[in-house]
Amino acid sequence: MGVYAISTLTKPQSRIRLQEGSAADFLPKPRMDLPTYNRVPMLEPRGRFGWKVSVGLLLLAFGTPLLAPQSDGAKPGPATTFTNPLLPTGPDPWVEHKDGVYYYMNTTGVNLTLWKTHSMPALKSAEKRVVWIPPASGPYSHEIWAPEIHFLEGKWYIYFAADAATNISHRIWVVENASADPLQGTWTLKGKVSAPSDKWAIDPSVFEDRGKLYLIWSGWEEDENGTQSLYIARLKNPWTVEGVRGRISTPEYPWEKVGDVDARVLPDSPPHIDVNEGPELLKHGDKLFLIYSASACWTDAYSLGMLTATSGTDLLNPSSWKKSPRPVFQQDPNAGVYAPGHNSFFKSPDGKQDWILYHANSAPGQGCGEHRSPRAQSFSWRQDGTPDFGRPLATDTRIPLPSGDSGTP
Prior knowledge:
Elements: E1 49-50, H1 53-61, E2 70-71, E3 81-82, E4 94-98, E5 101-105, E6 112-117, E7 127-132, E8 142-152, E9 155-163, E10 171-177, E11 188-192, E12 201-209, E13 212-219, E14 227-237, E15 240-249, E16 274-284, E17 287-294, E18 303-310, E19 322-323, E20 338-347, E21 354-361, E22 373-381, E23 387-388, E24 399-400
Parallel strand pairs: 14-16
Antiparallel strand pairs: 1-2, 3-24, 4-5, 5-6, 6-7, 8-9, 9-10, 10-11, 12-13, 13-14, 14-15, 16-17, 17-18, 18-19, 20-21, 21-22, 22-23
């Protein structure tokens, strides 16, 4: 895997914690505090500036330095573009859109933090709140990963992965809030969300198809690390699995199997880990596209793959899903974007555009830590009905605001 950055945000696929003294010369000191996103100001629209040409030429002729540019007095207009990233750090970004409001979350590692905004490009200045803090010990006390907020059956639910300070104990949990505003009210733990096999599990997401609710996640087939596969199960209600799980994807192509482990960093891990994780459902017509992250997150080869199924079929049957043989979104060194992955999707405020939200690094070898920042860009649909995500955009690319977006939180 090479040496990679570890912090409280780190999500190494081996899920084995760093021991004291291991690779100390190679890793930055972990940050134990929650990132303070508000310290980074939102980009403000620039006013128009003009040069006093005649005065400037006279001064230049006499060898006097030119005057600084002066404002023409016009007030800056509303922003029409933005640049990535949306926040300086934010792995595993997720967004839910309801009643004109975007509710955003990402991995902090130590709690559940929720953002509320009318504009995703304005996320830096959005209202945010820590809505749930884990206990100091117990089965869901450590390594809070990949939270997702969903509005189901008239209430809010946040699904997340957590453990008991041992990697093998990582499982999926859910909290519930009956308040109309999820930043208000009380979040109550409903419990562990698990199939009867009760194996290692992370990266939960839920979706509905033909009146049936499903849970999808990344997990182990047995109790040993080495391969992460994608699983699906029916939900009887938002917190209870009904029946057994089905394994619908496991790494098979070379681009899904980049995951060598550096024993100096993770001495108790296997020498190689194959990864499918971060499953997210995208619907278009009667097609279901399950977009997932492939290869280890500490590698620059971390990318997005795609499974396709038809709505209404037996989704627990692996044969209902067809895997695309090539990644659908991957690094672009020419744009300075590395390891793009663990995505989600949202619509523009007017519902006319589709957008992908993902995290990525801005330099090679930055690994699976707090360098990962959330980015957004629109995507289109091909004539055959499949999504076309294009290439990840450079951070200096001016991106038009989503249609119907005011640019203000």
